[in-house]
Amino acid sequence: MLAGLVAITPAAGFVGYMNAVVIALIGGICCYFVINYIKGKLNYNDALDAFGIHGVGGVVGALLTGVFQSHHINGDVVNGLLLGGGFLPIVNQFIAVAITIVFSGVMTYIIAKVISKFSELGTDTVEEAHGLDYVVHGERAYFSGELNKLNKRK
Q1: What is the 8-class DSSP label of residue 90?
Q2: Which of 1, 23, 142, 153 has a Cα-to-Cα distance from 90 of 20 to 30 A?
């Protein structure tokens, strides 16, 4: 449901109700696929699936805005592809998405570089085995099988 809400957010105010449902469903399916298949294949660390939901959902929703946007819903936009507006709305959305991705990537890199001068950006294997709930707060949110394996090695 969250992935569907993220996907429809870029199109809010530009599409009708049924098109909003379609965008939410497509966005949800895309996010599910990325979180459950692509994340495992690429082996990237995203414990909260922020990229899989917000990154992918936002991109999918932004691109689909160009497909479903309606002049009848918002008089300031031309119709999207499915309503006879051609490919220009999709091209515009694609350019906006590309600029946003580049800007976000560059700024994240700069911010991470600055922070890395003062603090570690990741966790070591012992912290990961104990879990950050325990390391930071001194509490366990759930039992980690990794901690059990670590204790057996000692």
Answers
A1: H
A2: 1
